[in-house]
Amino acid sequence: MRSVKRGLLTLAGLGALSLAFASVTALGVTPLASAATTTSTSHPAVVRSCPTTPTPGHFACLALKRTDVHPQFATNQAVPNAIPAGVGYGPSQLQSAYNIASAAASAGGGRTIALVDAFDYANAASDLATYRSAAGLPAANFRKVNQNGQASPLPAAPPANDDWTLEEALDLDMASAVCPNCSLVLVEAQDDVSNGLFTAENTAANLAGYISNSWGGSESSGDISLDSANFNHPGSVITASAGDGGFGVIYPAASPNVVAVGGTNLTTASNARGWTEKVWGTSAGGNGTGSGCSTVEPKPSWQHDTGCARRTNTDIAADADPATGVAVFDTSNGNTGWNEVGGTSASSPMIAAMYALAGANGTTPAQNVYQHAGTSALNDITTGANGSCSPAYLCTAAAGYDGPTGEGTPNGLTALTPGTGGTALTANNPGSQTGTVGLAASLQLSATGGTAPYSWTASGLPTGLSISSAGLISGTPSAAGTFTVNATVHDSASGTASTSFTWTINPSGGGGCTSTGQKLGNPGFESGNTVWTSTPAVIGQNGPSEPAHAGTWDAWLDGYGTTHTDTISQSVTIPSGCSASLSFFLHSSTSSRSSSARRRWGRSPTSTTPAATRPTPSTCPASPARRSP
Q1: Fold category of 426-506 in CATH
Q2: Cα separation of 339 and 602, whole Å?
Q3: List of residues 6+ apart from 91 with CB closer than 8 A
Q4: pLDDT value, residue 495
């Protein structure tokens, strides 16, 4: 079970004392102003639908209900084709804004979207029927199941002060608005305990190819295990809301196995598109879409921003600002009918439904977005911010990729299908190599960008060496000389990239050391996570927060503020007759000044393998350290 809200108590002059709490939240927000007027107000007058301090081990929703404007009552709003004015955008506006009206009218049949939520929404079927009738949509192919996939018994209704029904109504209505022809299944966890929601997640993957999660919480050291246990469904589209608290990362949006969905402010405009968007939030932070750099999750191969060595949120975005919110119909828990709702709880089911309209997931759906980066398939969002941070792109809109909106918002459905674009394919240069006649040699080549998987060819190799399709050069040199090696990488989209380097093979000799020089492969980490063996997310480009000694890459052995050991190693063969020494540049830091704080570095050589380890005991919630040989 995940812990609940994480905080940090800092005592002036005494370092930092970590206190573990936990919080995981559903991310629907009811706005201050009607989308019909497109008025933007930063601080709406609202009341929370769920408690601000959840019980340990539970999630809390962030639905905020307006206190200055009352919802429109259900008894007056059951008129077909008539969503009331002043309660937010309906299907026609959303389909227009994202250029999907034609697809929404004809596509989606035979595809199922699952919405994962907590507690039972007793009025789900009747409220959904009212929404779809008022919006002029066909009757829904809808069913509701418990976390185990059964029609009964269903969970209990949520407590009056823990209103997940508005969240569930929002999810169902947004999936309907974007993909009217898709089938819908509402998977209800027994309650808002994490294990129940994770059980519901796996059930959803058995029932649907498209899954939306409008909930999340603080990151935890156990998230990588949760990824493999609950979100490892290759080929299925799993979207997750990035958060509603401004700059900052939440789970499961941080998982590389999901599409992390951010939020925008969407208003009409007198331009060719007819709409304009900016980041939902303010530079002061505290509200708006979530974004940032994960402290736990490794960077996926298809994400190439350089200011975050780990997983960056987000991937893509859609309307989420409560001030430009969406119309939602809910008669449960005192919601009484039509409400205008916002939050990334709105954008997550929208994006999941757009993937369903497109119907071409690929193996890694999040990667699809990056393969269309910089093209007309995406609306690049270049204004707005959700906080203040460094590097600035993690919280501030910029041309191309940025944290709050990822690669942008969809312009049609192309960006949600596999493509051949994205970051340019690059063959990383391994630098000059040396060897000796009669001594085995090995070198692993690496590449970035393009469309994985890769294959390799090479010419000019030293006599006796060969290259595998995976880029491993190996063998035993049989002739001395200096060779110019030309290596070419091929990606699965028919892209190619090449690099050249020299390889000097020295003659064999009797006695003494005949093979001097650097024996480590990739000694400065500039070829990324190659040659070295390490615990997750050690080697990376950590930017200004932990700058490299030289170049842009280093190895960050992190304590993560708890008991933790990071390791990094590689096997090195010391030629006969030679001796060797290991030297490296080390920067070590800690947030604790306590006399009990302990940091330990170890070099653990065997006959062939030097290694460094850094345990961080529970008495020392230390800051990261880095090591650059």
Answers
A1: Immunoglobulin-like (2.60.40)
A2: 60
A3: 104, 135, 136, 137, 176, 177, 178, 180
A4: 62
pLDDT at 382 exceeding the cut of 70: yes
Average pLDDT for 64-69: 60
- Beta-carbon neighbour count of residue 496 at 10 Å? 12
Q: At what angle do helices 165-178 and 124-134 cross, to 10 degrees?
A: 40
Cα gap 319→263, rounded to integer Å = 5
Tokens matching residue 437: 């006649």
Report the relative pairing of strands 465-467 and 454-459 from DSSP bridges: unpaired
Average of pLDDT values for 18-42?
Answer: 36
3-state secondary structure of 558: coil
**Length reported for the chain:** 629
Class of domain 23-416 (CATH, top level): alpha beta
- C-alpha 251 chain-centroid distance: 9
What is the three-state SS of 418-453? Answer: CCCCCCCCEECCCCCEEEECCCCEEEECCEECCCCC
Q: What is the DSSP string of 473-532?
A: EEE---S-EEEEEEEEEEETTS-EEEEEEEEEEEPP-SSS----S--SSSTTSTT-SSS-
Of 122, 194, 128, the residue nearest 164 (C-alpha): 122
Q: Which residue has the tokens 């997983």?
A: 311
The backbone region for 87, taken as left when phi is positive above 0, alpha when psi lies in -120 to 50, beta otherwise, is alpha
| Radius of gyration, alpha carbons of the chain | 27
Amino acid letter, 349: P
Taking the domains of the chain in order of start, what are their residue ranges?
23-416, 426-506, 522-629
- Amino acid letter for position 364: T
Share of the chain above pLDDT 70, in %: 77
C-alpha span between 182 and 143 (Å, rounded): 12
Partners of residue 25 on adjacent β-strands:
60, 216
Question: What are the tens digits of pLDDT across the range 350-381?
Answer: 999 999 999 988 889 999 999 998 889 999 99
Q: Is 409 exposed, middle or buried (0-12, 13-18, 19+ CB in 10 A)?
A: buried
Look at 582 and 595; give whichever has higher pLDDT: 582
Residue with tokens 């002029």: 136
Encoded amino acid at 265, one letter: N
Which pTM does this prediction carry? 0.65
3-state secondary structure at position 578: coil
